[in-house]
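Progress note, sequence design subtask.
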């Protein structure tokens, strides 16, 4: 499809919509609900979901799948949806990301977060730290997989990533950015694996993002058809995506990522680090 072609971005965005619809329907605190991981991650279920991607039209709908027949050990449960198309929930947030590796090639991918700037703004006594505000990720719809309940953990957007290759750690990468974290890491991984970039090139490449799925923060707003792109992506691509029904907003050329990561080459005995020039990010070695 070629990097950041209209076909590539369209297919990627439509796949994200389907995956995030399943996230909203099925994911919550596993101490409270059963999650059909085997079905959701199966090749057969992916093939069924892939049929819903229309190569010529952007979906404007919320379309979670029915995973029951792909997860035989899962006691099929009907979870209600919690989707708002009129609110103004944020898909980004305020988080940090750290990747580190030591001389023995132990690797850590770490995403500390208050969710929003200064969290709840409530400081614990005179201890100097604040409660975070990730409680606004809960659903207030009874029976929802992520519904608020005593002792229950809210679903999280944090997704620091470890990639393995031939049984060895290959790469750690991640990003701040609320729901956009997943989209940023997907693009970094595809740029490395499918387009042969080094990690710095993969992070610097032009970016796209969508909010066409329920936001994690309350009121869980979905913006049907939403698509943003850095304007280093050609105008012809924008026009073609708009023809397919995407509601495209062009952003400044270096504005839509905040990723970092490390890559290990065991054959050469080298480690490479990458940090995003879009933000105050830094790679250090000692």
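Output:
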């Amino acid at each position: 499809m070629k990097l950041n072609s209209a076909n590539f971005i369209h297919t990627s965005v439509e796949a994200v919509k389907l995956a995030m619809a399943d996230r909203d329907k099925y994911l919550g605190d596993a101490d409270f609900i059963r999650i059909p991981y085997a079905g959701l991650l199966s090749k057969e279920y992916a093939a069924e979901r892939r049929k819903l991607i229309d190569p010529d039209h952007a979906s404007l709908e919320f379309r979670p799948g029915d995973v029951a027949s792909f997860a035989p050990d899962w006691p099929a449960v009907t979870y209600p949806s919690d989707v708002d198309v009129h609110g103004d929930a944020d898909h980004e947030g305020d988080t940090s990301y750290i990747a580190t590796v030591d001389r023995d090639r132990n690797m850590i991918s770490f995403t500390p977060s208050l969710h929003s700037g200064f969290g709840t703004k409530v400081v614990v006594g005179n201890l100097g730290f604040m409660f975070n505000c990730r409680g606004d990720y809960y659903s207030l719809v009874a029976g929802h997989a992520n519904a608020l309940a005593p002792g229950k953990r809210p679903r999280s957007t944090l997704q620091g990533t470890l990639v393995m290759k031939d049984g060895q750690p290959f790469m750690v990468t991640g990003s701040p950015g609320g729901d956009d974290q997943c989209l940023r890491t997907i693009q970094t991984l595809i740029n490395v694996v499918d387009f042969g970039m080094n990690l710095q090139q993969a992070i610097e490449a032009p970016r796209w993002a969508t909010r066409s799925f329920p936001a994690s923060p309350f009121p869980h707003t979905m913006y049907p058809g939403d698509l943003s792109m850095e304007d280093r992506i050609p105008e012809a691509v924008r026009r073609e995506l708009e023809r397919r029904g995407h509601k495209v907003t062009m952003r400044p050329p270096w504005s839509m990522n905040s990723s970092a990561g490390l890559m290990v080459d065991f054959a050469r005995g080298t480690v490479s680090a990458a940090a995003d020039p879009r933000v105050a990010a830094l790679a250090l070695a000692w």
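The chain has a mean pLDDT of 93. Work on this subtask will continue into the next period as scheduled.
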